[in-house]
Design goal:
The complex is a heterodimer of chains A (135) and B (111). Chain A is an alpha+beta fold. Chain A contains 3 helices and 5 strands, in the order βααββαββ. The two termini of chain A are 21 Å apart. With 111 residues, chain B is of the alpha/beta class. Chain B has helices spanning 25-37, 55-69, 83-91, 104-110, and strands at residues 2-7, 12-20, 42-46, 50-53, 75-79, 99-101. Classes of the chains: A alpha+beta (135), B alpha/beta (111).
Chain lengths: 135, 111
């Protein structure tokens, strides 16, 4: 159950991806599953920096991976503002070009790529748990 | 991420290599905006060597396509889409919004 702590900067995204994809591969996920995990983690960490912390250089991101026989779990923790997923509308993926919105895709992609996405908030700490099943 | 820009008579070719995420997407936007600011709106994006794209990168692409197609003055087309990137486009509902070509030669020829 390795944990790494990264500065909440966009430059950390590539290092976070390297850590998580290495752990995902070691856990036995196939290439498609590793790519799904990489995408979901990148979107989640971008959201933490942009929305929870409100910018770069404000706080850290704690990243833990858990490898189990049937699942690979990533836990991301931050000390920024809480997040209510119910406030994020689904993007309209069939809208014509002129009506496409610029935001909302990241959270949608996290939920689509992962089998479970769970948010917990307590004691000024946000915890995001994402699970990818191996089967 | 690396960006290589080649200007042809009828269009611009931009080859993107590596990762486009929240850290690098602004540089991609800047490279594209330089072309748009020069009044050129026909763009081929060669994604053959693109390894990763997040929603931050997708936002740059959709914004560019909107700008290019305005007044029917141009278009962004995609050349050489890797399988994983195609799955991101499909998931995001982007595939119908961009004409896809197997390689940059045929994409440049389209213009």
């Amino acid at each position: 159950m390795p944990t790494m702590i990264f500065p909440g900067n966009y430059e950390s995204l590539e290092k976070i991806a390297e850590f998580v994809t290495a752990e995902a591969r070691a856990s036995g996920l196939n290439r498609t599953q590793v790519f799904a995990v990489e995408t979901a983690v990148d979107e989640a960490c971008s959201n933490i920096i942009e929305h929870a912390y409100g910018g770069e250089g404000i706080g850290d991101i704690h990243c833990t991976t858990i490898s189990e026989p049937e699942r690979f779990t990533i836990v991301l923790e931050d000390h920024g503002r809480g997040f209510d997923p119910a406030t994020v509308p689904d993007p309209d993926l069939s809208a014509p070009l002129r009506d496409r919105k610029s935001h909302g895709l990241g959270f949608y992609m996290m939920c689509q790529w992962m089998d479970e996405v769970r948010f917990d908030f307590h004691e000024n700490r946000n915890r995001l748990t994402m699970v990818k099943l191996k089967a | 991420m690396e960006i290589e820009n080649t200007q042809f008579k009828h269009c611009d070719l931009i080859k993107v290599t590596g990762r486009v995420d929240s850290s690098t997407a602004p540089r991609l936007a800047e490279a594209i905006n330089n072309i748009l600011d020069a009044g050129r709106f026909k763009i081929v994006l060669d994604l053959t060597k693109l390894e990763f794209i997040s929603s931050a990168g997708l936002r740059v692409l959709i914004s560019t396509q909107k700008t290019c197609k305005r007044y029917n003055r141009g278009e962004v087309v995609i050349a050489g889409m890797p399988e994983y990137i195609k799955s991101v486009f499909d998931l995001a509902g982007f595939t119908p919004l961009f004409r896809l070509f197997d390689d940059s030669i045929s994409a440049v020829g389209y213009f």
